[in-house]
Please model this.
Amino acid sequence: MIIDCHGHYTTAPKSLQEFRDRQIACNCDAHQLARLTRPHISDDEIRDSLEGAQLKLQRERGTDLTIFSPRASAMAHHIGDEATSLQWSEVCNDLIARVVDLYPKNFVGVCQLPQSPGVPAANSAAELERCVTELGFIGCNLNPDPSGGHWTAPPLTDRHWYPVYEKMVELDIPAMVHVSASCNPAFHATGAHYINADTTAFMQFIQGDLFKDFPNLKFIIPHGGGAVPYHWGRYRGLAQDMGRPPLAESVMNNVFFDTCVYHQPGIDLLLKVIPVKNILFGSEMVGAVRGIDPESGQFFDDTKKYIERSALSDVDKAAIFSGNAQQVFPRLAKHLAAAGL
Model:
């Protein structure tokens, strides 16, 4: 089995965005928000949105199950207020649950959280619990920068985040550290802001003692870990200079990277630098880069081929394709069993 740990519903029916547009037009007016009719999306519309995209690519590329969440760039926690974010998160998460209900052998859910700038992280715990206990989701996406590129939130090691971490440990789920859209023109969303966030999160973990307080907490840093594998010596050296423990002891029992790296040399570097046990297969399709690489003639985001062409043993490839995800997402086993996989 090949499990893709990083998929977003980037092809959701247009009525979802139409609802979002109406919601934003409410301009945080509580009465207008309450009167909004949630989008009516039929099962056939969901099927149509997936059959020519994610499901088609699963079949063509030979992957099996995608760990699926709402579109990351559309979380946009910086838009509106806390009530806006909660309503939007509920709508998006409920739609993911319907996708999973229709295609349990192809998808399993991960939720977005109703974060909002300046709002206690604790306020996201209720929606997280609903998604896990009622909708059967197996993880969440945690935005370290709800301000959308202005970085007003405390570091991920700050106690501000502890109520969410406590709920994650209680529910036995990991979080993917994933920012959303950038409202700062200095940071292109997928080309800069995403990679900045991945790199920043890892450095924050080095600087803090989060995993002493939460030894069982797990995070996936997407997009191959941002700049981290490329600058592995820098981070090892910085930890040493700051008197921090070696990364293998302080961070790498709790932090994992995906394979959303879109060329063979990049994947080869990731596999050479980061221990196999810390790598989960991911493609982010249909996502940040959708075209064909003229140098290779294959889609940039067909990351399965990069793993297959690597020098790893078959045992290590199997760990990356499936085994590691089942370790990092403990609730995945229940979904696989229910889906007959």
In short: The chain has a mean pLDDT of 96.
